[in-house]
């Protein structure tokens, strides 16, 4: 925490510190103290890409009702695979590493089995 008393939207308050107000900073350093990366905490991050109805997403995948453990996928002409599976809730993933063939081969991994 870097001490700071001015006006900032992302100023933090920590009553346990000697400097109670300041800017929270995360640093990634190597063994000799060289800073590799620096990140200023500016509050809770917003989730991204929650729009399932985005233009270009195939409706046959996004609107399909799935039971727990089921998977559906479709690949477009540019090699982007959109897949959807259901665990506790629907999970929608865009991938360039998988194809719709490889996705359908692993659907038994997501089924839960009780002993």
TrEMBL record:
Q: What's the name of the protein?
A: PiggyBac transposable element-derived protein domain-containing protein
Question: What residues does the PiggyBac transposable element-derived protein domain cover?
Answer: 1-50, 51-104
Superkingdom of source: Eukaryota
The record ties this protein, via InterPro entries, to:
PGBD
Annotated organism of origin: Acanthoscelides obtectus (Bean weevil)
